[in-house]
Amino acid sequence: MKLLKCFVWSQTSETEQTALLQRPTMESNKNISVQVAEILKTVKSGGDSALRDYTQKYDNVKIENFKVSEDEITAGYNKTSESLKDSLRVAIQNLQTFHQAQIQTPLKIETMPGVVCEKRTVAIEKVGLYIPGGTAPLPSTLMMVGVPALVAGCSEIRLVTPPQKDGSIHPVILTAASLLGLKNIYKCGGAQAIAALAYGTESIPKVNKIFGPGNAWVTEAKMQVAYDPTGAAIDLPAGPSEVLVIADAMASAEFVAADLLSQAEHDTASQVILVTTSQQMADAVEDQLQRQLETLSRRDIAKVALSSSRCLLAESVQQAMEISNAYAPEHLILHVENPYTVANTVKNAGSVFIGPWSPESVGDYASGTNHVLPTYGYARAFSGLSLESFTKSISFQELSAAGLKRIGPHVSNLAAAEGLDAHERAVSLRLASLINNNGTPL
Amino acid sequence: MKLLKCFVWSQTSETEQTALLQRPTMESNKNISVQVAEILKTVKSGGDSALRDYTQKYDNVKIENFKVSEDEITAGYNKTSESLKDSLRVAIQNLQTFHQAQIQTPLKIETMPGVVCEKRTVAIEKVGLYIPGGTAPLPSTLMMVGVPALVAGCSEIRLVTPPQKDGSIHPVILTAASLLGLKNIYKCGGAQAIAALAYGTESIPKVNKIFGPGNAWVTEAKMQVAYDPTGAAIDLPAGPSEVLVIADAMASAEFVAADLLSQAEHDTASQVILVTTSQQMADAVEDQLQRQLETLSRRDIAKVALSSSRCLLAESVQQAMEISNAYAPEHLILHVENPYTVANTVKNAGSVFIGPWSPESVGDYASGTNHVLPTYGYARAFSGLSLESFTKSISFQELSAAGLKRIGPHVSNLAAAEGLDAHERAVSLRLASLINNNGTPL
Q: Which is nearest to A139 in space by CA: A201, A95, A196?
């Protein structure tokens, strides 16, 4: 049986095309939503004690002190191989280089003589980083949220991650934290950890913004605290991870298949789309998928993901890019001739991988770009994480008396048009004072 | 009776201090929330017909064609005085200057030899602008959302605004739209207009992101469509407008009072806080407030707003700034000696007005900075509108074969640590192909 279902794009109706680019519906699970609301409320009022109860209930472990001790961090660090530490260091170094290059110089400009406007970027003071637990540790996620938080200069960085069954945190996570110099690490996960970050408990101080991916409970909890004015801001809405690969006849079917599989193995809900200008390429990729799939330890997950995958036959690379821009993929991989030129036509995507030597996994781990990206079509309006996500901008204006003289009458005019006397007054009494003090206008 | 309630900051307990900086609770109005959900659902399925019904119901007018015709725009333009047009032009010009200066050059950097990472900024394609109706037109809001949308290069800009009782749009709004060159203007407002922008109707195409302030219904509708993956992104969560003024003994009490009033006149829910280092200044401002208030047409609104205002006596300008940073005001006005130096210590604020000649109203209308700003403490994590709000960034990476050789082993290492075979495979089979083709590694 074929793994990839193929469709000829220009032979499908507009309705079919819309359906082909549809993500699976994310049923807002009413049950999860109500339970998450209950968890948030309970932790908000109950603090550490509620957090302890939920950790016992959901992680099956009793945690006395949520905060990981320095000794535990050191022990975790010592358990990790030098080779893996080296790789973590390389990834951190590249992430630092790319995110440091994003530091914005303050903008200062005179919009009219005597009217100086500025825009300055300032770090968000208190940030919370959520690192999921589960079967394998995710040090890459920690680097992706930790590095920009540090480069931005956030003054309080709190890291939460679910404890393992024995109450410890995986050594690789502690090693990554140690390499980054992060010390405020707490053993809690799930919606209750999001509650702790958003509202604060005795052990875990409240933060202003929460970063990092998680399961359906964590995602729902993040949406709910973002909706609550007393909660916290969040990085991005989240959906299942996804990739769209554009391949022409010149592509390596082997590489294309490997890239599709490296997305499919993430999750049964992962989305995998191949858009190709060549039927032969579609067939060759199918063949490669069959071969490569069987050798993967996570093949059962990948198989389910592939079962809702699609192969779309496009008439040209240009049409392929139109399809991609309409879909707005989290990851876009360009296996085409002149990939850099094609990359210039990307309108909607999270992160783009240009050419045969740029597999998605380099961006997932170590190239320097961020792997926390907009899924589910959110790339139409959202950016992936970057240095900006950990900062906010503040505008400033300073007028000289001469500047106010110049702009004041227009402000008065506009304020009058909006019926706002006091706005007008704040200008006119200043202008009057200038005339009164000096006898003449400036 | 005194208008300003005064408190000596260092004589209040920590609990009192927290209470003094508390915003009034925004009761999530259960009733509004349910009704808004119903409106969104009905417009989503019913399109124009539902939009027409709601417009009849809430705006008391039957609208046949939602789209404003070119003739209507021209007629509105011709009704507006030349003097007001001049002032609109000046404001637009300054906004353009400041927002154009925010255009980011693409970032391209080699994080390690052969690993090139890029970050490019791209306009959000389809944006919706909400301009509130009400007693007076708000051309300033239209300029604040319209100018950056145009500078960003958004390809579809849809403007919605509630019709007046006679089914027309206020001439000043049409004039501002005309000066900006915006042609897609629709006569609808309230939650139903947000629904139209988020989901699309026959007349109003769906957009990716919605901008602009509104009443409680509009705000609730924006939050709900932002929460819905099939909805649209929004600019900012919203709360009542607010100002914090820091004044030392050298300030002009007249100016300080005028600035406090220009905030208080906005809305009965507006927040007004004076932080001063001088008891005499507090008294003088009280005196000025009493005098100036009586002359305002919106004095009844301002009086209610002032009734929940506060004056906080600080020991130093530094302590005053600590208070301000804890409060995170939407607007911060600095009536102090060396205001520019003091401005350098701002950590949390939307927009800052430096010195005696910089009233808030210049930023509200014409200095060039944006007046759509984070309220309600959101300035701790959110920025006001800027060019960035109308764009998203996309990351790119292009590796050479040599670059992949260099970074590949680290990617494999990290993927193995996370148990993701296919991620590792996407790298290793490329590295193998390099060796196989050439006989030797690069």
A: A95
